[in-house]
């Protein structure tokens, strides 16, 4: 059974305020990840403490970096069940993990940060890793 809306609304809002598009269905996920060549940052949001204390603040800090993904999207594990399952189909080679952060380009996974890479780390360390991924995969191409 999904988490109640009232419980997750503030956690969703943290990412929406940053410009993230909420993907709430499998079709939303497919339409976002299959249409377009630009990189898409996909955050699998969660109610856990590491999402609140490290992942969401780390993502927010990372978006201050000069280079960043042009598209931002999120699914909420434990609430957007169909969308989360569909998003995870794109995270080939990785088991389900929430929270997690994926960077996709042309519908293909190019970077993945799993829960074990989030837990026990501060937002600054997470932001630094994400900024390096943005530099590698979202910079201008010649």
CATH C-level name = Alpha Beta
Spell out the helices and strands N to C. HEHEHEHEEH
> How much is the radius of gyration in Å?
14 Å
Number of helices: 5
Determine the CATH topology: Glutaredoxin
Mean pLDDT across the residues is 94
Structurally, the number of domains stands at 1
Helix vs. strand class: alpha/beta
Model description:
With 142 residues, the chain is α/β, with parallel strands linked by helices. A 5-stranded mixed sheet has the order 1-3-2-4-5, sandwiched between helices. It has a single domain (5-136), classed as Glutaredoxin (3-Layer(aba) Sandwich), CATH 3.40.30.10. The protein has 5 helices and 5 strands; from the N terminus they run αβαβαβαββα. It has helices at 5-16, 26-34, 49-62, 81-89, 123-138; strands spanning 21-22, 40-45, 71-76, 100-105, 108-113. Helix 3 (49-62) links the parallel strand 2 and strand 3 (71-76).
Summarize the helices and strands and which ones pair or pack.
Blueprint: H1 5-16, E1 21-22, H2 26-34, E2 40-45, H3 49-62, E3 71-76, H4 81-89, E4 100-105, E5 108-113, H5 123-138
Supply the key terms:
single chain; 142 residues; alpha/beta; Glutaredoxin; five-stranded mixed sheet; 5 strands
Quick structural overview:
With about 140 residues, the protein is of the alpha/beta class. The chain has five helices and five strands, in the order H-E-H-E-H-E-H-E-E-H. The chain has a single domain, classed as Glutaredoxin (3-Layer(aba) Sandwich), CATH 3.40.30.10.
């Amino acid at each position: 059974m999904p988490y109640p809306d009232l419980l997750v609304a503030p956690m969703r809002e943290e990412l929406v305020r940053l410009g993230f598009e909420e993907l709430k269905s499998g079709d939303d996920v497919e339409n976002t990840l299959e249409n377009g060549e630009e990189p898409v940052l996909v955050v699998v949001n969660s109610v856990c403490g590491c999402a609140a204390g490290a992942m969401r603040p780390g993502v927010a800090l990372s978006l201050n970096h000069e280079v960043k993904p042009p598209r931002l999207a999120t699914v909420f594990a434990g609430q957007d069940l169909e969308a989360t399952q569909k998003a995870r189909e794109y995270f080939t080679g990785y088991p389900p993990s929430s929270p997690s952060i994926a960077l996709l380009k042309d519908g293909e996974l190019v970077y993945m940060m799993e829960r074990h890479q989030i837990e026990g780390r501060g937002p600054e360390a997470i932001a630094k890793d994400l900024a390096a991924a943005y530099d590698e995969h979202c910079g201008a191409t010649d």
